[in-house]
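Objective 1.3, modelling of assemblies. Example input:
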Amino acid sequence: MEFHIERAKVLPKANLWDFLEGLRRVSPLIAPVRRGGRVAFSEINDISDVTIDYTRTVLPPKKFLVPYRRVRFTYSTEDLSFSSTFKARQQIIFGIHSCDLHGISILDSIYLKENPDPRYLDVRKKTVLIGISCMPDDFCFCLSTGTAFPDGANWDLFLTDIGADYFVSIGSPKGDELIIELKELFRDIEREDLELYKRSTKKKKEAFRNRKLPDLERISQLIELEYESPVWEEEARRCLSCGTCTNVCPTCFCYTSVDVPDFEGKTVKRVEFTTSCQYPYYSLVAGGHYFKPTRTARFRHRYYHKFVGYPYQIEKFGCVGCGRCSAECPAEISMVETLRRLRGEDEEELREAAEQTFTDRPF
Amino acid sequence: MKKSLEKLLNKPLPIDPFKPVRAVITDVEELAPDHKKFTFSFLDEEASDSWSYIPGQFVMLTVPKAGEIPISICSSPTRKGFLELTVRKVGRKTKVLHQLKPGDLVAIRGPYGNGFPVGIMENHNVLIIAGGLGMAPLRSLVWYVLDRRHRFKEVYLLYGTRSYEYVLYKEELRRLREREDIKCLFCLDRFETPEDERWADREGLLTELIPEVDLEPTETYVAVCGPPVAYKFIGKELLKNGYPESQIFVSLERKMECGIGKCGHCQIGYKFACVDGPIFPLWDTKNLPEML
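Predicted structure (tokens):
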């Protein structure tokens, strides 16, 4: 066997489709697909369906790690024996943007840090994550959250567009194995590639230059101090409590569990499904007490949890700046705008602040 | 890649924390209207032997066909071989539970939550304040303290509820009152029957009993559990009487689906009631909005 030490490789763009075909031979492949004018992560049968030119999918790739509806157990009412047919499968998710990779790393911390969930771990061990570089649109603010680049996240391979080629960073042994498997498609890096790679970083940063970016410096404390601010109520007035923002969020994890008996009442399925903190019954306990009774309280809770709750629990912001909640909100409520209003700065200052956040984020 | 993240994935698969163990109902006691105390024992001997908990912790109880509910443990870990839960019939799932009889099967997982800081409470006075059904989790603490009485200084129990009819564990409390090593002060909201008058030390609210407690506040740990509305008033009264915020512990209730910090429902500010609670020092009200 050939001994192989490589920091990174280069994949010529012409070889991309062969690369995808090769991945599909290894295990089931999930990649972004254009569907009805939108893009969605989907299992690939025909490589030509794959689209790499996209900004954001409607739903993040977390649906292949934690399905939105899942059966935890089936139990018989006679002897209360709990069983499960759950089986994790090998899968490769290709074409994940940097923000979503960070989103998955946040889920890793949530599910595995304390009281690890064996199912998530099983799925995660069998999943290969391949990222790809992207350019921001008006909703993106990953530069502020520090998730514009995949550094510091859990991934296996990352493809950075450097013009005629992709610069392929190797993030894990799993990623390395794939490179060895398909080594005829890659070439070695040269000095020139490295220069182009460095320039691509700058290019993405520059794309943010004329965009509105929130200043997240000390945001946790700001939200705590502005807890009673009228901004919450003013913004929440437009909110429909529909839960779209949390359902499209790559880091939201709340779920509800329901026991569903069959018609004869002999077997019961314990079904878990994604819920949203924006729904009124989210905090409802038996006896009829709502712990978060108002729309304002629930609206504020989402921001509070993302910027105060997550840092306490997992030492990272719960927001990766993907912009989905703002892009998909039917009432056009923007996270960036809410945070800007909360901080109470005018636009000029905001632009300056954004440049400051080019440096590393606090976590 | 970060070290902390890499380590998360390089673990062997743990045992499923969501899988409950089977238990059989051995006794059902009607304590008050809509309040029943269930006694369980585990079918599996191994589970029965390894089962241990701290007063103030809770379990997730599977009511067959209805679902899972978080219930505080009301028996003391100092008494082994069984588990007791006191449940009020208040919702869909507890209604089904109340129909169960001795011999029926349920499933239990846990114990979850932090429990009362019994270790650091040792060598101090203990003041236990229970309102209504709040007596259930505190009964666990009462018996824990009494069974290890030499480790604690003075012990007080204050208990208030609606009327004599709603007093939980009537016989036990009557016996507690006769003991020398615990001082009991009971109150009822309103005296309506002669029984009410015979039972209680006074008519009124729990807050009125607090000034009667003869303890050095800084040498005392306080455990409070009661209806959500009561905490504010009890907390204020305790602070007024000089008890330090960091030594007052309240047990809080929230909606829960998982008990292990995965479902998100029980968030109180930035903490999870299931893993960071349900016992919180009163000091946390400063940090956690909407805690009380």
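Chain A has two domains: 8-70+84-207, 219-261+277-356.
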